[in-house]
Task: inverse folding
């Protein structure tokens, strides 16, 4: 029961602080760097949940072990067999004569 109360209290407190900074920037002639930093930081944090997902659920995410194999192969001077592959030519490119 205490965790939701703490979360809501923190969200309410930080939201109040952010609105104070934004309103002070808009209305007070002597607002400065502190208010601008709080307002910009709060705005940046508001974008975080929308654009970030866990790597395991991200579309097109590469398995970290693949990067480790490629890194080790590059450090030892060996070329890993499946570290990287070039894209095959498309059938429409085969007879065009442009390449």
Result:
């Amino acid at each position: 029961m205490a965790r939701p109360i703490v979360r809501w209290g923190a969200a309410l407190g930080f939201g109040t602080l952010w609105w104070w900074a934004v309103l002070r920037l808009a209305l007070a002639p002597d607002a400065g760097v502190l208010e601008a930093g709080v307002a910009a930081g709060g705005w940046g944090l508001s974008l975080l949940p929308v654009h970030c997902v866990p790597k395991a659920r991200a579309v097109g995410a590469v398995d970290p072990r693949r990067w480790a194999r490629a890194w080790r192969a590059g450090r030892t001077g060996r070329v890993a067999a499946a570290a990287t592959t070039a894209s095959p030519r498309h059938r429409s490119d085969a007879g065009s004569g442009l390449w």
